[in-house]
Amino acid sequence: MHVHALSPEEVKFAASASGWSFRRVLEAMKDAGLGSLPGTSAEVLDDRVRARIAPGRITTAEWIDVVTTAHAIGLRTTSTIMYGHVETDMERMRHLELLRSIQRETGGFTEFVPLSFVHEEAPMTLRQQLPELRPGPTGDDVIRLYAISRLMLGSTIRNLQVSWVKDGMRQAQWLLSCGANDFGGTLINESISTSAGASHGQMQTPATLRRAIRDAGRIPVERSTRYDVLRRFAPDPGSTPDEAHPLDAVGDPEATFGSYERLTRDERFRFRLPVATP
Questions:
Q1: What is the C-alpha to C-alpha distance for residues 110 and 95, in angstroms, rounded to an integer?
Q2: Contact 2, 225 (CB under 8 A)
Q3: CA-to-CA dists, residue 171 to 2, 139, 166, 226, 239, angstroms
Q4: CB neighbours (10 Å) of residue 114?
Q5: What is the pLDDT along the chain (278 residues), one digit of tens a residue?
Q6: Which domains does the chain carry?
């Protein structure tokens, strides 16, 4: 089992709570079984933007410190951008250039994942504190960013992943013709985008993903988190049927795994501060 966990924001929290350095936290986590990190909490790596949308959270310099330290000790990470809110085109491009320069130095990024801002239930939208806030990127905006990302990062960060949770299955499928080469995973009980108002579902079965990939004229390949090829599927399942996957037999994912809405109402999973004992 490969453990892919702990965003840079969470590493910063662990370091702050323990008094340890980022390196010590990451080394301890690696010794405990951590295999790689999600490069999330990046949003846009520009402190002007971060001060507007995420004040008090991890800074650009701290994010860079966490991921480059992870790379230095052999922990690979993803890289992301969350766009379509208050950032400018120039800030997006500087973000891409920064990721490219880090990759040229460390080689530690496995992929780049552009993440559309989902605005419907996001705190930034509900609080109405940012008059310039946009309601996420347009469809054309998404396509442009993927195409530009492929051009800028193609020789350094070779894998460009789509997010069907953010953009929906149809646009995710189209993005395979706009520079993306990774459809992402099946996911089970996705909560981050769902809590912000995304309506594209919390799970897709492996068979659904393979069908979308084939319909886009591509050949499905199952990979590991580190992008080792685990299995190549036939271009045409009619001649060589795909091996059945247990998740394909799940008829009602919500009944089997729960849902974001149900789990957030379940008292068993609510955090409560511990009561001090005398």
A1: 17
A2: yes
A3: 29, 8, 10, 25, 28
A4: 26
A5: 999 999 999 999 999 999 999 999 999 999 999 999 999 999 999 999 999 988 889 999 999 999 999 999 999 999 999 999 999 999 999 999 999 999 999 999 999 999 998 865 666 766 677 888 888 899 999 999 999 999 999 999 999 999 888 888 999 999 999 999 999 887 776 555 454 444 556 778 889 999 999 999 999 999 999 999 999 999 888 878 888 888 888 888 777 877 777 777 788 877 777 777 76
A6: 3-269 (3.20.20)
Tokens representing residue 104 in the block = 């040229």
